[in-house]
Design goal:
six-stranded mixed β-sheet, 2 domains, single chain, Rossmann fold, 10 helices, five-stranded parallel β-sheet
């Protein structure tokens, strides 16, 4: 008789999850529930930005904005924390139209009491822009995002006639503490993962850096990535993998954790 675990679609599959520590649990829990053996080594670390001044300044003049755009759960949390720190009532946000890049961000925003009016059909910056076409001309827009990010949203909204202020709520950094653990894991013939998940372009770049690639895929006699399948959350992340000469074996059709999990299941059939 087969065990309950062996009947699960990812039974025994070793999967390396490289999300930042606070965010890894959702993906890890989903994979583990499907029978996978999950290894967590963060490829990115979420830190406060070098300065909160641009965000604080924007939050002090919320009455001047028409739209708030949130591109991650981290951005939502930064807004909530800074408003609490500055003693600004959440009700100050109630008059704003709010756009979120995807369902997780929307969920975090709604927990804050925000009413999200726009969630694009595809959870990438380009789709956010298209969803706002015809809605932002002549409007003031506050975009809260990572300190370093693609400039698609502010550039394209300005072309539409919007006035856009960009404020960093956080920044991503390389977790130096992961370097030894990752290098040891990839050289371990017993524990080496069969699948590695990438949930953003930053996770790709940092993965390469942590393996000692210094901006390019590591070329070693150990063939560290041999027989390892690389799973991407969506086309932007996939493009970054290819930019560094790495293959994309799995790409989610829906750019979410659930979508990535489904894609890994399909790949294992």
């Amino acid at each position: 008789m087969k065990s309950e675990r062996s009947e699960k679609p990812l039974a025994g599959l070793r999967v390396l999850v490289g999300r930042a520590r606070p965010q890894a649990s959702a993906l890890s829990a989903e994979l583990e529930s499907l029978g996978a053996d999950v290894i967590e080594i963060p490829f990115i670390e979420i830190r406060p930005p070098r300065s909160y001044q641009p965000l604080d300044t924007a939050l002090h003049k919320l009455s001047e904005y028409d739209w708030l755009i949130l591109t991650s759960v981290n951005g939502v949390e930064a807004v909530a924390e800074r408003m609490k720190k500055l003693e600004i009532e959440p009700s100050e946000l109630s008059r704003l139209d709010v756009a979120s890049i995807g369902p997780s961000t929307r969920g975090a925003a709604e927990k804050m009491g925000l009413k999200v009016s726009v969630v694009p059909p595809k959870y990438v910056a380009e789709s956010v822009v298209e969803s706002l076409r015809g809605k932002v001309e002549g409007k003031r827009v506050l975009l809260v995002r990572a300190a370093v990010a693609r400039d698609v949203i502010p550039r394209e909204l300005r072309k539409m006639g919007a006035s856009v202020d960009v404020a960093a709520g956080y920044e991503t950094a390389l977790p130096e503490s992961s370097k030894k653990a990752l290098q040891a894991l990839m050289k371990d013939t017993v524990r080496k993962p069969q699948v590695i998940t990438f949930t953003s372009s930053s996770t790709v770049r940092n993965f390469i850096e942590l393996l000692g690639g210094r901006g390019r895929p590591p070329h070693t006699n150990n063939n560290l990535l041999e027989r390892v399948r690389l799973a991407s959350i969506g086309p932007i992340t996939s493009a970054t993998l290819r930019e560094f000469g790495l293959p994309v074996h799995v790409e989610a059709e829906e750019y979410t954790i659930a979508g990535l999990t489904r894609a890994i299941i399909e790949d294992q059939k």
